[in-house]
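It is worth pausing here to work through a concrete case rather than discussing structure prediction in the abstract. The textbook approach is simple: state the sequence, then state the predicted structure, then interpret. We follow exactly that order.
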Amino acid sequence: MKKFIVERKLPGAGNLTNEELQALSRTSNAVITVLGKPYKWVESFITEDKIYCIHEAENEDAIREHAKCGNFPVNKIEEIKAVIDPTTAEEDN
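Step two, the predicted structure:
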């Protein structure tokens, strides 16, 4: 599967309550269960007015299908080509 970052514009996202975030998580999990294809939601990052989600899927169409079924906005989808972190600077990598 490929890894994608999904940008969702959601004004006020940073003010969502724990209960609202839990409900979004439950909806995402439920949609993944019924998609009937390889799909994994890895994690999401909440900012003031956006949610950035990391998903693993076969293609961008699967990401859009997940969003449509869950009634989640999708403003941008980018395939992640590489991941780096501070350890990338070490010679042994």
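Step three, interpretation. The mean pLDDT is 96. The CA atoms of residues 57 and 63 lie 7 Å apart.
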